Amino acid sequence: MKVPLLDLTAQYRTIKDDVIAAITPVMETQMLILGATVEKFEAAMGELTGVKGSIAVSSGTDAIVLAGMALGLGHEDDVIVPSFTFFATAGCIARLGVRPVFVDIDPKTYCISPDAVAKTIARDYVVKGDDAPPVHRKTGRKLRGIMPVHLYGQCADMDPLLEIAQIYRVALIEDAAQAIDARYKGRPAGSMGTVGCFSFYPTKNLGAFGDAGHVVSNDAALTDMMRKMRVHGGHQRYYHDVVGMNARMDALQAAVLTVKIRHLKAWIKARQERAARYVTLFEKHNLLSIVTPPYTAPDRDHTYHQFVIRCPKRDALRDFLKAADIGSEVYYPHPLHLQKCFANLGYKEGDLPETEKATKEVLALPIYPELSSEQQSFVVEKMAEFYRK
Fold first, then answer.
1. Which of 12, 87, 243, 370 has the fewest CB atoms lying closer than 10 Å?
2. At what angle do helices 251-261 and 36-49 cross, to 10 degrees?
3. Is the per-residue pLDDT at 129 higher than 80?
4. What is the pLDDT of residues 21-30, one digit of tens each?
């Protein structure tokens, strides 16, 4: 039996006719950039997130860059980010000249630790006025934002982060690329902070047929700025209020996503069912004393963009599964604070112990709505065989 980490063709077969029907008018009219098709999807995302300002963009990466530009982040600024995340979280703000300030994670959820954020600010920054952002004690750079990542499909602990952001008057930028429709105390991912950023990379729970992304915000002025900056800084063609970028969503991607978003809640439910089945199978094969399944905090739900376990002998297990035609992946094998491109920031091994420990223990197993019970049984049987040996 072969079990891929993800099978997008299986999903496509279930919606093929609807997708073709949706993209055909786009091809026939040749209205390929923005337009009514994109606006229809923007309305659907606004309804899903409950956020007034809903803007379709070209990728999740561009969503973060656009948000940072609209917030005016630049060379004199710092933004606090987790080190245990996909590169774009820190890479996008670094492109704007912002210094990423890396902090550790909650070892259970893998999301940014509010305690680590609070301690970093108290240790490294000083507040010089009621309306002024905190200033770094050594560099003089201003703390302008906190960017939690809702990792693997579960929201970060948002209330304490929102409180910290309010106290210090800094922006809270939600990287919700992996957690569309995940909930924190009933509130959707991306809807709680200053701005929420989404990715529709094909492997996401809501994936396009290529690159696409989204930003949402309840701040009217910020929404207007992002909408302008998405099209080179102007609402009217050839008239530019600010220097923006090309971050427009293609109408073909919007058409596909408008079809897919109708299935999102059912697909998430199917992922949750398969996650529960994994835990039952772990128990059946006496693996719960060996591997640690994903943890879901009591005030949150989990949409299982990834089903990530902690396990001993991780790399050997992965090789064993690969030999049995079972897909798996390590998200993420090397923390951002130790990446070569950030060496100038001065971080060293041991600075973020929970992050560094996670990089050595986590392993993502196959999970998607079409994953069969037989496939899951095969995965867990092979894991049990590995640990028996």
1. 243
2. 40
3. no
4. 999 999 999 9
Q: Quick one: average pLDDT of 190-206?
A: 98
DSSP 263: T
What pTM does this model have? 0.95
Mean pLDDT of 133-154: 97
Q: Which helix (H) or strand (E) holds 68?
A: helix 60-70
> Residue 240: is its pLDDT beyond 90?
yes
Q: Name the class of domain 264-388.
A: alpha beta
Q: How many CA atoms lie within 13 A of 284 on its CB side?
A: 13
SS3 labels along 182-209:
CEECCEECCCCCCEEEEECCCCCCCCCC
Strand locations in the chain (E):
53-57, 77-82, 99-103, 125-126, 135-136, 142-146, 171-175, 183-184, 187-188, 195-199, 213-217, 307-310, 362-365
CATH among 3.40.50.11270, 3.30.479.30, 3.40.640.10, 3.10.620.30 for 8-104+111-261: 3.40.640.10
Judge contact between 33 and 251, C-beta under 8 A: yes
- What is the identity of the amino acid at 52? K
CA distance 62 to 197: 9
CA distances from 330 to 172, 302, 365 (A): 28, 19, 9
- Token pair belonging to 209: 């047929």
pLDDT, mean of residues 264-288: 98
